Amino acid sequence: MIISGKMSTPVRAVDNREKVRTIIKLLRKEYPNPSTALHYRSPFEMLVATMLSAQSTDAQVNKVTANLFRKYKTVQDYADASADDFRNDLKSINFFNNKARNIQASARMIIGQFRGKVPDTMEDLTSLPGVARKTANIVLSNVYGISEGIAVDTHVKRLSYRLGLSKHKDPVKIEKDLMEITEKRNWGIISNLLILHGRRICSARNPKHHECALNSMCPSREI
Question: Is 58 a known active-site residue?
Answer without folding.
Answer: no
